[in-house]
Specification:
alpha/beta; Rossmann fold; four-stranded parallel beta sheet; globular; EC 5.1.1.13; isomerase; aspartate racemase activity; Aspartate racemase
Length: 359
């Protein structure tokens, strides 16, 4: 039975956690856009969808444990979003689209594909477009195929420059995945763009990893141009903004789960109960998630540890307070629901201690 009709308030689903900062960035962009009508939202930063630190930058077969774990975790995450009755769904990670596209044909929820939306936004472009992202995304050719379907020639960085991009994202000391933006990461990314523009002559660059717009924002790019770190004529294309625009304008639909949610728990499911909050707005969700980041960094620093990639983040879930059914459904799963940043301050230390006990 369809749960969407003309009177239904749209419910937008966001899956993040690969990393959580990218989910915050997507919510910020959604909040900055005029919506055609009010909508509810569910934002699930499921960090267990990410590779473990020791698994990053390795080649895995679909039958290897890391891939089996990610497949079962992604499947259950999608079914949870269906259980929470989202109408349209976006994924705050470019490279994860390859995995999720394998599962989505079996999930009756409207999926807004960030990669296809970005390619569509460039219709009519007559010049080559440079695609930047993690190595797995570049190797998957997801953007190259999507751009080619729009009649646009796609290019990619050289091997040396691709290594610099990976350093800027994953380096344990200064990479974007450490939940901070550093001068070293910014410098590496600017070096890559300058070099590729000189060699390939392209002036448009797709930020095809949701970590990249965190360092190459509209404001920071203006600063880099003024400093001579970026050419004046470069145009960066923010895939996250293309997704945000589509999510707040498309009317989706979904079907209710036929079977209990527990039946979708695969053998390799990697699950940790999310810290869940009902919030009055995207802005409140963003503020709470940012406070969680701060607490997390402080907690680990006190123990001479650092955030070692997305997998180390505490899973979080935020939903519109007006969606009373979501609170009831989460509580039925044994997930506590909190309200307000004051509640976070009271519980966060115990939650972090419990989460990191597993590490």
């Amino acid at each position: 039975m369809k749960i969407t009709d003309n009177l239904h308030q749209p419910r937008i689903g966001i899956i993040g956690g690969m990393g959580n900062e990218a989910m915050v960035d997507l919510m910020l962009k959604m909040a900055s856009l005029p919506a055609q009508k009010d909508y509810q939202f569910v934002a699930f930063g499921n960090a267990r969808l990410a590779y473990k630190p020791q698994e990053v930058m390795q080649q895995w077969l679909p039958t290897d444990i890391p891939e089996l774990r990610k497949y079962d975790t992604a499947t259950y995450t999608l079914r949870l979003m269906q259980y929470l009755a989202v109408d349209q769904l976006g994924l705050a990670c470019n490279s994860a689209h390859e995995l999720f596209r394998r599962i989505l044909p079996n999930i009756p929820v409207t999926f807004v594909d960030m990669i296809k939306q970005t390619a569509t936004s460039l219709q009519g472009c007559q010049e080559s477009v440079l695609v930047m992202g993690v190595s797995s995304l570049i190797e998957s050719k997801l953007y190259q195929i999507a751009l080619t379907e729009e009649g646009i020639k796609a290019t990619q960085p050289s091997a040396d420059n691709q290594a610099k991009i990976m350093e800027a994202i994953y380096n344990p000391s200064f990479g974007i995945k450490t939940a901070k933006i550093t001068h070293q990461a910014e410098t590496l990314l600017c070096e890559v763009i300058r070099d590729e523009m000189t060699k390939q002559g392209c002036t448009k660059v797709i930020l095809g990893c949701t970590e990249l717009p965190l360092a190459l924002t509209a404001i920071s790019c203006q600063r880099f141009k003024a400093q001579g770190l970026l050419p004046e004529n470069v145009e960066v294309i923010d895939a996250s903004m293309a997704l945000a625009q589509a999510l707040v304008s498309i009317q989706g639909q979904s079907d209710a789960l036929i079977q209990p949610l527990a039946t979708y728990q695969g053998q390799y499911l990697d699950w940790a109960q999310p810290l869940a909050f009902k919030v009055s707005s995207l802005a409140e969700a963003i503020a709470i998630q940012q406070r969680i980041f701060d607490y997390t960094v402080d907690y680990l620093t006190e123990r001479n540890q650092t955030l070692a990639g997305s997998y180390f983040h505490l899973p979080t879930l935020f939903f519109s307070a007006s969606a009373a059914d979501i609170e009831h459904k989460l509580q039925a799963l044994g997930i506590d629901v909190y309200c307000g940043i004051n509640a976070l301050d009271e519980i966060i230390t115990a939650k972090l201690a419990d989460y990191y006990a597993d590490f």
